[in-house]
Amino acid sequence: MSQVKEVNNYDLFARIYNEKFAGFSEGIIPILKKFLLEKINKSSTILDLCCGTGQLAKALSDLGYQVVGIDLSKEMIKYAKQNAPNTTFLVEDARSFRSPASTFQGVISVFDSLNHILSTDEVFQVFKNVFDSLDNQGIFLFDINTEAIYLQHTGSFGIVEPDYACIKSVTYDSQTKFAHYQLTLFQKEQDHWQREDIPLQQRSYTTHEIIELLKEVGFIHVSQIDTSDFGIPPSLGKAFFVATKP
């Protein structure tokens, strides 16, 4: 199954994502402040790559930054425009987006967005696109899920609200490094309930793979961020990285 189809499946999931899964932005801002925002001017323009429903873009906009958000899901972008009306949002693919050179002083991609890119070749292409879009000395900050997080979070859980319910089942194959998500979504439509079955995939990457790909693209000062002081210890399996364009 291609990544394009999977991300488009998020159109079906956008409403629940917007209501239930987008609160991560509050916890991310302190990390961004220390490793990105304190190093760029307030007049800087930041790209939120795979921006989802725009809550983080809004938080950055409220701090005074110019923000552009891109995501492949049209429904996610629809919610993003509602959540952050003063921000520019575009329906774009992270693997193929093109911006004029030196457009951004910072690029971010968080909430394991890049785990939806399912091969190292495509991750390399995403990194190359980011590199090309950054100004000299521009900073790229992002996170990924390593294998540890998938090993800890397989199984099923559900969300039940008066007008919708969602069941999420997760399995992980340690040989292929693929996590398989099956979302079963029920939404109330006037006098009946509509069911949608949404398959999604992610892939885990090692920190070594990510660092080597960044260096291969041309980034310098590549490092994994210690986020223990921000309530995200390494044992959780979520890794943050920062890199600079020369």
Brief sketch in words of this structure:
This protein has helices at residues 3-21, 25-35, 55-62, 74-83, 120-133, 147-152, 207-217, and strands at residues 45-49, 66-71, 88-91, 104-109, 134-145, 155-161, 164-173, 178-189, 192-203, 220-225, 238-244. It has 246 residues and is an alpha/beta fold. The model is unreliable at 1-7 (pLDDT under 50).
Distance between the termini: 36 Å
Annotation field: number of helices: 7
Low-confidence stretches: 1-7
Q: In percent, how helical is the residue content?
A: 25-40%
Which CATH first-tier class of the largest domain would you pick? Alpha Beta
Q: Provide the succession of SSEs.
A: HHEHEHEEHEHEEEEHEE
Main-sheet strand order equals: 3-2-1-4-5-11-10
What descriptors fit this protein?
alpha/beta, 7 helices, disordered N terminus, 2 domains, Rossmann fold, N-terminal domain of TfIIb, globular
